[in-house]
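Minutes, project check-in

Agenda point 3 was the complex the collaborators sent over. CS summarized: two entities, 344 residues total, and the question is how they sit relative to each other. Sequences were read into the notes so everyone works from the same version.
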Amino acid sequence: MPKNKQIDITTKIMSQISSGKIRPLSRWYFVLGSLLSIFGLVGLTIFAIFIINLLFFVSRSHGPMFSFRLTQIISSFPWWLLILAILAIFAGIFLLKKYDFSYQKNFRLIVFLFILAIILSAWLMDYFGLNESLLRQKRMRRFYQYLNTSQTYPQRLYKNRF
Amino acid sequence: MTDFAKLSDQDIVKLVTTKDKQLYSHLISRYQDKLLRYVNYLTGHDFSAQDIVQETFIKAYINLNSFNLKKKFSSWIYRIAHNQTMDSFKKHKQEIPLLEDMDLDSGQDLEDDAIKLELKKHTKNCLSLMPLNYREPLSLYYLEDRSYQEISDILRLPIGTIGTRINRAKILMKKICQKINK
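CS then shared the predicted structure for the full assembly.
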């Protein structure tokens, strides 16, 4: 490479730096980016665990018409939330890749472990009776009652017809 | 007075971000030749390589505070150069040749020194005919003297894949160079 080309690059860049035309982004920008990603991911994780835990709970507290109730759960399940969650995960990965472009990460493995951890945590929460203890709490009782009512509503309709 | 030549890349980055931004010129002079050569292998054009390298240094400077001082600066800057080159390919809609139907099963393995010699002798001709996914690890390994780990960090590929690509690239290299020499 000719020497004048080398000088040219250095001069061009250093003149832009000296004039303040280009500046390093503040450390806070990256700290904030990391914090937002972490909070977003943690929030999304808790939300996903809770939703899946509820799914376990509702499908566990079934009666003789389990298959009918399961169909009701599926039909009334807020699928848009699931789509939103998946989109949020992809957005988070995109952001991480965009600004943290230097270090190698196995994103496929991260996503796989993340989903596995969510399902396992949700199952453990249900297994150790978190839903029952939440059901006993005043603040959450109404929510669980609503959940049960909305599940049984079609059955009651069904019964009234005969 | 500090002898900046003796300082590590990481030390200079620290000084640039905390004390004197003018010290960034030391990093430029340390890496511009290497990056120009590397990008030149990938693009095949001196002029676009110069633009890409310039953009690489600007992008690196803007994002200098995101650099992890515990990691290697060389891998970081090569990664940015790689990204810039890929962006340039996309921008100019340059076709990135990918190897699909070439027969590589020759069973021959070349000595590293022979490959190095051959590469340096016919660098441009041979490399320009090679698909990008082989050209990149090969040039990083033999011409830029990067380790498998560093290449893995730069290209974000598992070390095993890097090894496979370099081995296949060696075979391909021999074929291409032999064809050129005929």
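Noted in discussion: Helices of chain B lie at 9-18, 24-43, 46-62, 73-91, 112-128, 132-143, 148-155, 159-181.
Follow-up: revisit at the next meeting once the mutant set is ready.
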